[in-house]
Amino acid sequence: MSNKVALITGITGQDGAYLAEFLLKKGYVVHGIKRRSSLFNTDRIDHLYQDPHVENRNLILHYGDLTDSMNLTRIIQEVQPDEIYNLAAMSHVQVSFETPEYTANADGIGTLRILEAIRLLGLTDKTRVYQASTSELYGLVQEVPQSEKTPFYPRSPYAVAKMYAYWITVNYREAYNMFACNGILFNHESPLRGETFVTRKITRAVSKIALGMQDCLYLGNMEAKRDWGHAKDYIKAMWLILQQEKPEDYVIATGVTTKVRDFVRMAFAEVGIELEFKGEGVDEIGVVKNCTNPDYQVEAGTEVVKVDPRYFRPTEVELLIGDPTKSKEKLGWEPEYDLEGLVKDMMASDVELMKKDKYLREGGYKTLNYFE
Ligand code: NDP
Ligand code: GDR
């Protein structure tokens, strides 16, 4: 068992939750930074909760924010971490068009604040840093599949901010000999995925449509192609990247790309509903061809998927497909889930969640939030 100390920014997010659990199992003492919020925001890590009044805890949370350098410096000084996983970010690409300055501050300069704190505190020889870089850096297609050597062409304020974070990580590694690495992770999903990312939006809506709780799923660009993996596999790669002898950057991906429309088809198939798509562009609709599951009464001919241009982005990333050769060879990383396994896992979880929600709603209780 390890006796290392890790600090995770973004511990309340999808990846932070899986990584915290993974590191605790390895024997790490895990510190996490969470934001103050008017409602509890620790749902994803509640199962890891430890009473703060008990001694020798191995999961400790600190209030903080990536936009506050003094706060970050104080936490890093207190914690003296062996490893920092910088996962905190305003991570929604479409929202970054609406909050570009904040996104630059948190996602770009936030990374600098962490690196600079390590340097000023004299921790450059002790603390290793993982930076959550992204396939969004590739943006407008330059080559496929995309590898560590593919040039970047970011297509959103989010991706531009992450590009700064990528290069400042490389620069601190080269300038100050820090063990600082970028994991260039392609899209990864799970039952813990934020509800407004496309995969989770789909699996939630399909579950609700099957259970008669929603009529139609509205989507944007269904032609977009993504290389989707499972977050449980991807957080293992983050850890492996920091266990190597030399600090380097790695692409983490499955090497398979799929259209949003086909993800929709696969999710409906999980509840026994076969879909056919008619029309084109904004007029495209998904219509039920048949429903073979006797538990669900969705009639053939029902229009269950439509396009809402509100979800189109000012500049889109049309095609992502990663080349994971380096991570497979050097890290020995292999994903356990394929896309089918991922869809199954997400659908099983959301069908259960929506069944519970339906039951509670019918009993007059307030349950899940439905705002997007
Ligand atoms: P989530 O959106 O699920 O989680 C983001 C986390 O960051 C949350 O804990 C959030 O807190 C926190 N956060 C947001 N803004 C701040 C801030 N200003 N200060 C402190 N904390 C903040 O993202 P994921 O878990 O999916 O992704 C983790 C990281 O990996 C992100 O940096 C993302 O950009 C990057 N990434 C993700 C990929 C993916 O497919 N999931 C692919 C490639 C990169 P709160 O819970 O309070 O909102
Ligand atoms: P992405 O994920 O932008 O790739 O960023 P998202 O799931 O939001 O979009 C994927 C693709 O689906 C298209 N799309 C829609 N997207 C959303 N959210 N809602 C819709 O209704 C919809 N309809 C179609 C999008 O246009 C896009 O092409 C994610 C985030 O986790 C980033 O933080 C991370 O860096 C990248 O993945 C890798």
TrEMBL record:
It catalyses: GDP-alpha-D-mannose = GDP-4-dehydro-alpha-D-rhamnose + H2O. One of its GO terms (biological process) is 'de novo' GDP-L-fucose biosynthetic process. Its cofactor is NADP(+). InterPro entries: GDP_Man_deHydtase, NAD(P)-bd_dom, NAD(P)-bd_dom_sf. Residues 7-346 form the NAD(P)-binding domain. One of its GO terms (molecular function) is GDP-mannose 4,6-dehydratase activity. SUPFAM superfamilies: NAD(P)-binding Rossmann-fold domains. Keywords: Lyase, NADP. CDD domains: GDP_MD_SDR_e. Its EC number is 4.2.1.47. Catalyzes the conversion of GDP-D-mannose to GDP-4-dehydro-6-deoxy-D-mannose. Belongs to the NAD(P)-dependent epimerase/dehydratase family. GDP-mannose 4,6-dehydratase subfamily. This is GDP-mannose 4,6-dehydratase. It comes from Plebeiibacterium sediminum.
